[in-house]
Specification:
Blueprint lengths: L2 H12 L5 H13 L1 H39 L12 H7 L1 H33 E3 L7 H13 L15 E9 L3 E4 L1 H4 L5 E4 L5 E10 L4 E6 L13 E2 L9 E6 L6 E9 L9 E5 L10 E4 L3 E10 L5 E6 L1 H13 L19 H9 L2 E6 L1
Parallel strand pairs: 7-12
Antiparallel strand pairs: 1-12, 2-3, 2-14, 3-6, 4-5, 4-14, 5-6, 8-9, 8-11, 9-10, 10-13, 11-12, 12-13
Helix pairs in contact: 1-3, 2-3
């Protein structure tokens, strides 16, 4: 296909100007050709940046028009000629000092307002991938009734509705779990559920909202710690175009997806994260991203709302930083070491998933 024609088709696709038949054919092409898919993602981000540039330009124009209008009405005065600056300074030094202070405060306020609305727009363009639970009160009440009737053992979950949930995975065989900060932030209790349905109580021992990372510790006698983890952690991340796969809990059962590294930075060039071309849904937050050798290169946390298949993941080096922070303040965590050698190299994908699945948990935040 001619490149100019392809770019034209991409723009029509992103602007939703295609007929249903054209859109279906183009999505088939996109799924079958990673290069085309990457062009769609890059062009989407390019168009977004153009829109942001236009918004900033319009904002500056509005400020200039307001300034001109205020000057014409005499509300503010233009700078005096240079010839009388020294004389005015001597005469009105105190007044000018106050005016300069007001101008400085006004500048800070405008900058703050601009930052607020810019942040608000960015938040609207990104969706965190934690999930909300519905109809949980009936289930919890039913469990409570069974406990009173001595039909079952005490449930791990507290008798309150689940606020949100996501995915987490072991970083150490002793029961340390990593997930996203937004999955557990503000929770009163956390329960982890493995791929067999067993539940375990956990406590929050580290939370970094800036890097969107939280580390939990399983505090449950029923938990059987594995002798070692089958996968390892790779601080340097993945190469552009490298094949990747994920495991997570967008449903009540563990779900597998595969994709590729589509950009080495995250949303708006964020260096703390990277961009991957993969399907992800609410519940995938906190899920591991693996390369073909079974090395963790990141943690899924958000997706772009207006672009299909644009998912962002916190880089694995942030996991190393989180572990270092824990060890510095808690001497009992000195044994916490991230495995650096994967046992999954050379295995086919089905075998890799079988070994990893027991180490990935659904996170329920109460």
């Amino acid at each position: 296909m001619d490149r100019i024609q392809l770019l034209d088709d991409i723009e029509r696709y992103l602007r939703n100007e295609m007929t249903p038949a054209e859109k279906y054919a183009f999505e088939e092409l996109r799924q079958g050709d990673p290069d085309v898919d990457l062009m769609v993602v890059e062009h989407s981000l390019f168009m977004h940046q153009l829109e942001m540039f236009g918004d900033q330009k319009n904002f500056r124009t509005s400020l200039h028009e307001i300034h001109t209008d205020l000057a014409s009405k005499g509300v503010i005065k233009e700078t005096a000629p240079k010839a009388i600056i020294a004389q005015l300074w001597k005469k009105h030094r105190r007044v000018m000092g106050v005016a300069a202070s007001i101008a400085g405060i006004t500048t800070l306020l405008i900058a703050g307002i601009s930052t607020y609305y810019s942040r608000k727009a960015s938040t609207a363009e990104l969706q965190v991938l934690s999930k909300k639970f519905e109809n949980t009160e009936k289930k919890v009440n039913a469990l409570s009734q069974q406990v009173e009737n001595k039909k079952v053992e005490e449930p791990k979950a507290p008798a309150t509705p689940i606020k949100s949930g996501g995915t987490g995975f072991l970083i150490d065989g002793k029961g340390y779990i990593i997930t996203n900060a937004h999955v557990v932030e503000g929770s009163q209790a956390v329960v982890l559920q493995n791929n067999k349905g067993a539940e375990f109580r956990a406590s929050l021992i580290h939370l970094n909202a800036q890097n969107d990372i939280a580390i939990l510790k399983i505090e449950d006698a029923d938990f059987k710690a594995p002798s070692s983890l089958p996968y390892s952690f790779r601080k340097n991340g993945a190469e552009l175009g490298e094949q990747l796969f994920t495991l997570g809990y967008p449903r009540e059962e563990i779900v597998y997806n595969e994709g590729y590294m589509s950009a080495l930075t995250g949303f708006n060039g964020d260096t703390l994260s990277c961009q991957i071309g993969v399907s992800a849904n609410p519940g995938n937050s906190g899920g591991p991203v693996f390369n073909k050798n079974g090395e963790v290169i990141g943690i899924i946390n958000t997706r772009q709302t207006q672009a299909e298949g644009v998912v962002f993941a916190v880089n694995a080096r942030n996991i190393f930083n989180a572990v270092d922070s824990i060890v510095k303040i808690d001497s009992s965590a000195n044994h916490l070491k991230l495995p650096l050698n994967s046992q999954l190299k050379g295995m086919d994908r089905v075998q890799q998933i079988r070994k990893i699945a027991d180490c990935v948990f659904m996170v329920k935040s109460y």
